[in-house]
Each structure stands twice: as C-alpha cells, then as structure tokens.
Amino acid sequence: xxxxxxxxxxxxxxxxxxxxxxxxxxxxxxxxxxxxxxxxxxxxxxxxxxxxxxxxxxxxxxxxxxxxxxxxxxxxxxxxxxxxxxxxxxxxxxxxxxxxxxxxxxxxxxxxxxxxxxxxxxxxxxxxxxxxxxxxxxxxxxxxxxxxxxxxxxxxxxxxxxxxxxxxxxxxxxxxxxxxxxxxxxxxxxxxxxxxxx
Length: 198
Description:
Mean pLDDT: 91
Strand content: under 5%
Number of helices: 11
Structural class: mainly alpha
Largest sheet: none
Low-confidence stretches: 1-7
Shape: globular
Order of helices and strands: HHHHHHHHHHH
Number of domains: 1
Distance between the termini: 44 Å
C-alpha cells in the first residue's frame, strides 16, 4: 500500500465540514493516523509536517479537540529551528489560538486549559522538559482566549499536587533556552497579537 493510500480515509469519513485554517498546509483529502506514524521513529521535519497536515485534516473534519492533539504531536519533533518547514509553517502557537478563536459550535473541543495543565504536569518520554514548557505556553494562550467560566483549570489537581503555574516570562525564557531556534520569538509574537486584539 502506498503512503498516499494509507493516509486516505474512506469517502464517508473524508467529508470536510469546516473551512481550512490559513496557517496550516492545505490538504486535499482526509488523513489517517499513519501519516505521522511512518515518521515517528525519527521525529524529523517530515514528522512535523505530517502532524500539522493531520491537524488541518482533523480540523476540517470538524474535530477540533483531535486537531489540537496533533499540534501537541508537532511539538514532539526533534528539530533545530533551521528547517525549511519551520520557515514556512512556524511553531504552531498561532494555530492553536486560531483554532480556539474559531471554535465551531456543536463540535467537541474539550477543555484546552485543563488539557494543557495536565500535559504540562504529566508529560513523559523524549524531550519531556521542553515539551512541558511548550504545554505551559499553550496553557497560557488558552487562558487568554477562552472564557474562564466555561474552561476552568483543574482546581482539584492544583490543590492535591500543590501546583504553581509558571509565569509567562519564565515560560518564554525556558523555551528560548531549550526550544527550537526562533521559537520563543514566535511565541511572544503570538501573545502580542492577542494583546493587540488580533
């Protein structure tokens, strides 16, 4: 089976119901999980591109929560920051904001604030430290965009584990130290755009 065939879903499942995110690559058909799995061992630039393509596919299928999970996966890529794909499709902080600002009514989003809190405090595996800081960055962005009464943090976990949320400045600083080259600049620009009201 070819890579393209493995990635495609059946016509019944391939219906796009939402317009594309302009910050992600365009996709002509719905993708399946194999698009990232084939690149998982190396987690290189191709893995990153596959993850953001899958995020676009899931978004267009009306699955915003699953699309956000693919942004998490993109942040797992082992890159330096000099890769061509990052010049064209920067670290997807602004994509997350776009997803949240354009969240479709009636489609499952989950609670991104709670999700990123859990991810930041429980992440494991390769490069877990920088991935935790990226999750905190996404946590801050989610809190900035989403109404707190609808999307609260996990207060039970906070009390039980005595969690103290790191401040924005610390998060940016850690990502500057450990993240991809230029990643912290992208993150700060994303936050600045939010403060400017888009």
